[in-house]
What does this fold into?
Amino acid sequence: MAQKLDKQVNKTEERIVAVEEAFSKTEQFIEQNQKIILIIIGIIIIVILGFFGFKRFYLAPREKEAQGQMFMAQKYFEQDSIRKALNGDGQYLGFLAIIDEYGMTKSSNLSHYYAGMCYLKLGQFESAVEQLKKFSADDKIIGPLAKGGLGDAYVELKDISKGIGCYKDAADQAKNEFLSPYFLMKAAMGYTELGDFENALKIYRKVKDDYGRSNEARDIEKYIAFAEGKIREKK
It folds into this structure.
């Protein structure tokens, strides 16, 4: 018993010595490299202060200015004055100019969405893809709408597979009874156009099971029966 206690005491002493040596080495390192460490800390502080200063004194005022400009562009968009919304009216900037002049702002990012939807309405689908791909958002409304708009543009460009992928992404991002079943049905229609009734059927069943209270689910049995009939025909 005494031997065991001695061993434990020795091990404890060894650990204490090891810790003391580590602290000693750390102190020596700090003393030897004090100037370099202070310089690095100073640089980090300057970067942090610079970042917050940039956001407060440069980015925030530009954000406010961009929002003021975008107000009219959004109004024109709501009124279906698409070209004025896109290019401005001579007094207020359009979405394209806001993107160019107010880069790094939230308004510039949102303008990519609006510009993409404008191009979609104008039938300029390649430009719509270009703008919508540059937009980023994690919310449950605008983000899915942008993905869905991108899907529409791809479908119009006859790239149905990419369009389906966008519709499914939009449904996953939305995760609500309004947008998710809407985009899932668009994806299913894309599969139907490709003759892929198995995947179309999976989506119809998902709408039925996961979004049974949605408008899209009201006639879902009809779509399920149609897809099942097409699958039987193939067999």
Q: What stands out?
A: Confidence is low (pLDDT under 50) at residues 2-7, 49-59. Residues 137-235 form a domain with the Serine Threonine Protein Phosphatase 5, Tetratricopeptide repeat fold (CATH 1.25.40.10). The radius of gyration is 30 Å. The chain has eleven helices and no strands.
